[in-house]
Amino acid sequence: MVGAAGQLGREVVRVAGSVGGVVGLDRAALDVTDADAVRAAMS
Fold first, then answer.
1. Cβ of 20: how many Cβ atoms within 10 Å?
2. What whole-number distance in Å separates Cα of residue 2 and Cα of residue 27?
3. CB atoms inside a 10 Å sphere around CB 25
4. Domain locations in the chain?
5. With contact defined as beta carbons under 8 Å apart, do 2 and 32 qualify?
6. pTM, 2 dp
7. Of 22, 27, 4, nearest in space to 37 by CA
8. Are 25 and 37 contacting, i.e. CB atoms less than 8 angstroms apart?
9. How far apart are alpha carbons 38 and 19 in whole angstroms?
């Protein structure tokens, strides 16, 4: 989940994370303008 530091992102990660398989990423963890970083984060 990109945007995990925002209000909506925090809630989505909290709720969906209880089910499993959700990783929260914020601006510091992932620069969405860097295609290689996005590919690496999604693999």
1. 6
2. 8
3. 18
4. 1-6+23-42
5. yes
6. 0.66
7. 27
8. no
9. 24
